[in-house]
Amino acid sequence: MVTAIVLIDVDPDLITQAAQTIADLPGVDQVYSCAGDVDLVAVTTVADHEAIADLVPNHISKVPGVQRTVTHIAFRSYSRRDTEDAFSIGM
């Protein structure tokens, strides 16, 4: 599985609609509206890099109101929960 974080600039009048449409796309796990340099952040998980190459330009970028995307591929996941789970099973 490949996880990617997609930073999305959206027409301000269409942020809510774009966020919901993107959240409904297969492969999109979460969409966050946020303050800062971008309007939305989407977390995606798909089978392989080819699926990311399809999802972002052919689906996310084509959602009405989306103006620009920047995609970051995740290498590893680090979280407090991962550490706590490892210790709870005796690792």
UniProtKB/TrEMBL annotation:
Domain of life (superkingdom): Bacteria
Domain Transcription regulator AsnC/Lrp ligand binding: start-end pairs: 6-76
Gene3D superfamilies linked to this entry: 3.30.70.920
Cited Pfam families: AsnC_trans_reg
The name this protein goes by in its record: AsnC family transcriptional regulator
Species, as recorded: Nakamurella endophytica
